[in-house]
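Spend some time on the protein that follows and explain the fold to me:
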Amino acid sequence: MDAWISEVRSLLQGRLKEVLEQARDLGNRYLQAVMDANRGQEWKRKNTLQFRVRQRGNAIALEWYVIAWYGGTGQDRQMRRSRHTSGWDDDLVSAVETEASEYRRQAHYLADMLVTLGRLQRFTQAQPSDTPGEHTP
């Protein structure tokens, strides 16, 4: 059973890696589209919304954020994260979010299956091994 679990775990981790790469590619495409579009915009109409893909263990996070600095200069300056679109980029953000939600869902289910496999493996290792005829009266 352990060999089977290891094989399935390998397949699921491989698929999770593919989902992560697809999500990173989406982030790169979004960044390129924003950079291209921002060239023709005045400063106050530039898109400041960022898209980030991170992995911690089996969890993949696809997040939107804006980093804006406020306060005085020096040590009084603080960073604020929020969500903001410029208006002209709403269609782009909606399209990226639609694709990102698919990757989030896939990553969530894959991570759940990996957790379940870990539980199954611990369960099978905790069970005493049965050899034929050993427990017969």
User: Anything to note?
Assistant: The longest helix spans residues 2-38. The beta strands are 50-56, 59-70, 78-82. The mean pLDDT is 84. The first strand starts at residue 50 and ends at 56.
